[in-house]
Amino acid sequence: MHGKLLNGNRGIKLFSRHAAVPLLSLACFSLLLAACAQTSHLKQTDAPVSIPRNAKILLMTPDIQLFELTAGGMQEPKADWTAAAKQHVRSTLAKQLASRNDVIVPYEAPADRDAEHDHLQLVKLHETVGNTILVHKYVPALNLPTKRDKMDYSLGEGVRQLKARQAADCALFIFMRDSYASAGRVAVIAAAAVLGVAVSGGVQQGFASLVDLETGNIIWFNRLVRGYGDLRTPEPASEAVTQLLAGIPL
């Protein structure tokens, strides 16, 4: 697998560890050993849901964060990069989903703080469940015997509050993380390479879930893991979203 040298401090992207999501890092590391770019979607197997034509799809606010890797390998959150990435991803989602037959409704946070908190907890729950799927469905050695041939993960009936508020049939959750090597990290990578030692750069990783808002079941799931890409600029961000939505049953 070859890293990609980007201009300025965009750095070299190979793979990285994120302390906040150790399960995702483990899955990403295993997958990246096999190939530089990986996308593969899963569909619900137990009583699969048939999405009606012209269904109302609630587009949850994408959960996105971007980081810069320091010379020592620490990940520093970059608010300006994250803001740009969110704008590019939302714009691409709106354009791509608008071309489909379904009615796409952007999520609107409620004025009630308790309700908003509950909705944010659902976004965090999606991250947790998504990381679990990455580990136990995409890493063969960690497949659970009871779920080996099944895709029956759920966010629970708590998602019904979203259905009640915006009268949607399903919700699309997006989780994405991207990291870029700083100039100092690039120097460390180059120096280590001379000595024949591999030092990690950044990785682009994420997953998307289509959730039935009546049952909470994940109808469809896809993940993206690769050692290149840039969510900070429109065209590469658009391409990443296209890969993430590949195979979505809408």
The percentage helix is 25-40%
- In percent terms, what proportion of residues is strand? 15-25%
User: Ranges with pLDDT <50 over ≥5 residues?
Assistant: 1-12, 14-37
- Strand count: 10
**Global shape:** globular
Distance between the termini: 33 Å
Largest sheet: 8 strands, mixed
> Number of helical segments?
6
Give an overview of the whole structure.
With 250 residues, this protein is α/β, with parallel strands linked by helices. It has one domain (4-244). It has 6 helices and 10 strands. The protein has helices spanning 22-34, 79-98, 113-138, 160-166, 183-194, 234-244, and strands spanning 4-5, 12-13, 37-43, 56-59, 63-69, 75-77, 103-106, 170-181, 204-212, 218-226. The strands form 2 sheets. Strands 3, 4, 5, 6, 7, 8, 9 and 10 form an 8-stranded mixed sheet that branches. Helix 1 (22-34) runs parallel beside helix 3 (113-138) and helix 2 crosses helix 6.
